[in-house]
Amino acid sequence: MSAALRREPAAAGLSASLPQRIVSFRVDDRHFGVDVSTVREIKGWQPTTPIPNAPPHVLGVVNLRGTVIAVHDLRHRLGLGHTSVSASSVVVIIDFGDQLAGVLVDAVSDIVDVTADMLRPPPDLGARDSMLLAIVVRGDSVIVLPDLAAMLRCSGLSLELPNTKVVH
User: Fold this and answer.
1) pTM
2) Which of 8, 49, 66, 166 is the 20 to 30 Å CA partner of 128?
3) How many Cβ atoms sit within 10 Å of the Cβ of residue 166?
4) Residue 118 lies in a domain
């Protein structure tokens, strides 16, 4: 078995390219995570102002202390239908360096410390451009690390997360 598949710390490239701590959250019964350093804040749901001609998964914009940010329905972006907002629904505000974006999720679960041996490369699904950075295996559970910059960039937004790379 190659070093990359064994996920040895040196082979995983964890130090600069992938998160060492993630904020995990749920969308439907699926678990996802993002680098804790990119999370600006987590807010309860508030109604958005719709934007004409926005992609269908863009719910609208909100004013976050003077900064207008787009709020994306991650469930819809993943092809799982629209989110029915509930008491546990939250908007995770992601800092893309020069731009903020909000991502509506069902609930935030936990802060998870990620070690190199927990990381797996995303499966080859035959897609031209993968929208996954890595998979975190934690016991019997799996946490998907989506490439939110790529997912939201497909909306016509120009976003980049600093220091992120796909695990190979």
Assistant:
1) 0.78
2) 8
3) 17
4) yes
Per-residue pLDDT of the chain (168 residues; tens, 9 = 90+): 333 333 333 333 433 466 689 999 999 999 999 999 999 999 999 999 999 999 999 999 999 999 999 999 999 998 899 999 888 899 999 998 888 999 999 999 999 999 989 999 988 777 655 688 899 999 999 999 998 888 877 555 444 444 444 444
Q: What are phi and psi of 153, to 5 degrees?
A: -65, -35
What is the strand order of the sheet 119-120 is part of?
A: 107-113, 21-27, 30-35, 141-146, 132-138, 119-120
Within a domain: 138: yes
Is 91 contained in some domain?
A: yes
CA distance linking residue 20 with residue 127, whole number of Å: 27
Residue 18 in domain: no
